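REVIEWER CHECKLIST
Item 1: Sequence provided? yes
Item 2: Single chain? yes
Item 3: Sequence as submitted:
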Amino acid sequence: MTTTDELAGVRYIVDDVDAAVRFYTDHLGFTLHSNPAPAFADVVRGPLRVLLSGPASSGARATPDDSATPGRNRIHLVVDDLDAEIDRLRTAGLPFRGDVVAGPGGRQILLTDPAGNLIELFEPASR
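Item 4: Structure as written out by the authors:
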């Protein structure tokens, strides 16, 4: 895992990335952090980073089909070595939802907490 002083992000699945960026930056005081592809952008306000994932993003594609209603958002935790984390957590008997999904920004997998909430473990393509 990364150090505890690294920001954790919250991912929101959105229908229109550009409209979401305008909403957060124009109305809520966020600044655009990055927008590497039309399918994804992230905005920051103070210590909060919101990852805005459109339908074509790897983040949206990694969401299980049965999670298409509100509540499919999840905590996004950056890890240095996704495969090692998966091995460590599977050894501990923790449940995953789906397989690793790769996209231009990196690789990810979804873990569930005891209540079934989704936690995304994400390894960036490059740091």
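Item 5: Key structural point noted by reviewer: The beta strands are 9-13, 31-37, 40-45, 48-53, 74-78, 96-103, 106-112, 118-124.
Item 6: Recommendation: ____
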